[in-house]
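Students often ask what a holo structure prediction actually looks like on paper. The answer is less mysterious than it sounds. You provide the chain, you provide the ligand, and the output is a string of discrete structure tokens encoding the 3D arrangement of the protein together with flavin-adenine dinucleotide.
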Amino acid sequence: MTIGIVGAGLGGLALARVLHVNGIDAIVYEREPSRDARGQGGMLDLHTETGQRAIHEAGLIDQFRAMARREGQDLRLLEPDGTLLLQEDTPEDAPLDRPEVDRADLRHLLLDSLPEHAVRWGHAFEHAGDGLLHFADGSSTTYDLLVGADGADSRVRALLTDARPTHTGQNVVELGIPEIDRTHPDLAAMVGRGNYWALGNGQSLSAQRNGDGRVRIYLSFYTAEDWFGRSGIPFDDPAAARARLIDLFTGWDARFTALIAACDDTVLPRSITTLPVGLTWPSTPDITLLGDAAHLMPPVGQGANMALLDGALLGLALAAHPDDFPAAVGEYEREMFERTSTAGRQSASVQEILMSPDAGRKMLAFFQPR
Ligand SMILES: Cc1cc2nc3c(=O)[nH]c(=O)nc-3n(C[C@H](O)[C@H](O)[C@H](O)COP(=O)(O)OP(=O)(O)OC[C@H]3O[C@@H](n4cnc5c(N)ncnc54)[C@H](O)[C@@H]3O)c2cc1C
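The corresponding structure tokens follow.
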């Protein structure tokens, strides 16, 4: 029985690893030409009951704990005028409830734990039919079970449902300051060791320290889908783009615009889309989905955790029913639909807070029970 996994993101790799640990072979088909072909983005906080549980099932929890950054759990929450609403500094002996890990390090950990032949790079999935997977380079291969782990813009998804991601009303520009401790020690001290959020009406700034000393900055604008085209941000001219972004933050405390001014030439626009919360499809014996392909949700801290746990739990279900893939898929989907619709609802309500007027005070009230 051949298991073909499309997508070597965190979810697809967690599945391949849990299958491997249980003595089941699978092949991951990834469109990127190599593991380092594309930057993998910033930090992720892995939660005990979801992302860390998956890493445990993958037999990699000790290696994960060695690379996780406890102090990355620090949080500073501010208002646009610079008022500090909340500061949480993680004690040295705090439990590793939600430690931050560099996404690229986590992906390397999973990739290094698989046999080399388990990932086929440069295989962009195009379509499937008659027991064959077809790739953009014209090649094809057989499968008994196809798992779409191909992310937000999944092509496998269309084999199961007509649902498509829609725009959330959030547009993000990603910027970054390299080696901040050396280049801008004052800004490094201001951002601190973890997450730094300034929430305003209709827009926000978040900064996050990465393991390599870079601070990634995300500027969010709660605007319509076509806003980037109308925003006047010249994405092909980084210096002018930074100047325009500083303009868009007129009226905010000068420390926030200083952060934008200190950034390098990375200026990446991202439109944020989601699938409908609670999306399901009639179970199909030889195809299923996991991660963003199945339940794309707002980026407020659950997506990667859910993708990892989907992969681990599908792997365990297949290991429990090695001769009955349809039973394994049915069991996996029942649990996944329920768990991820709860996570999707929670993420949507956090997103609603972030997009509301007086977001800072509302987020403070959200965090207060902690
Ligand atoms: C700005 C931002 C910040 C985020 N922060 C967090 C956070 O802090 N915590 C958290 O839990 N989540 C976070 N998320 C969400 C998280 O990134 C995703 O939920 C998670 O990466 C989904 O994993 P995945 O394996 O399903 O998909 P992906 O990580 O997207 O992997 C999909 C893989 O499939 C490959 N692929 C795509 N199409 C094809 C094809 N046709 N053929 C072959 N391969 C293909 C892609 O190249 C990719 O390698 C964030 C998201 C964004 C946008």
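The first helix runs from residue 10 to 21.
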